[in-house]
Input
Amino acid sequence: EIVLTQSPATLSLSPGERATLSCRASQSISTYLAWYQQKPGQAPRLLIYDASNRATGIPARFSGSGSGTDFTLTISSLEPEDFAVYYCQQRERTFGQGTKVGIK
Amino acid sequence: QVQLEESGGGVVQPGRSLTLSCVASGFGFSSHAMNWVRQAPGKGLEWVASIWYDGTNKKYGDSVKGRFTISRDNSKNTLHLQMNSLRAEDTALYYCARVASKLGAFDYWGQGTLVTVSS
Output
C-alpha cells in the first residue's frame, strides 16, 4: 500500500504570502496525484489532478508540481478564502493526512 | 447541475449493519466510476471503496475489506455501501464522490451522511 506523507502539518501565514505544501509518496506514483481543499463543514473540492493540472474553475494562484515521489502544491498569494485544509491523494485511492493552512 | 445526495446514516450498535445510499443527478451516472470516502470527526479523509461505471472491478480499503460492500444500480442512478460488523472506529461522515472521466480524481462530492457506531 502506498503511503502519502504531507508536510508541514500546519502552516501559519498571512494573506498575500506564498504557501508551499509538500506531499511525499512511499513509492513512485508517476504524476498520479491530486490535491483537494476542504473548508470546515464542507466537502472537499478538487484543485489539481495529474500533479499539475488545475481543475475547472480553480484560480491560477494554485499550482502543482512534481513526479515520482515528491509533489508540491503552491498558492502564490494567499487570499482570505484559501485558509483551509489541503489533502493530496494518490490516483483515486490513498489520501495524505492533510496540511492546515491557518492565518498567522 | 451535478448533485450527489447521501442518505442512510445514523446511530448503530457495534456489530450491527447499515446500508448507505447516494443518489446522483445532473450527469450520466452510468458513465462514471464512483467512490465512498469517509472522515472521522476531526480527522482526515480516508478512501473506503470504489466501483467501476458498470458495477465491476470493486476495490476496498484495508480497514473495511471483508466487512463493507459497494454496489450500484445504474437504472436508479444510485450508489450503495453495505456496512457489516460495524466498529466504533467506523464512526465517520461518509461521502460519495464521482471520478472525473480521464482525470483520475474526484471532481464532485456529496455533503455526506454521518454514521455513529456506539452502544
Summary: The interface with chain A takes residues 33, 35, 37, 44-47, 50, 59, 62, 95, 99-100, 103-107, 109-112 of chain B (CB under 8 Å). Chain B has a mean pLDDT of 97. The CA atoms of residues 50 and 59 of chain B lie 5 Å apart.
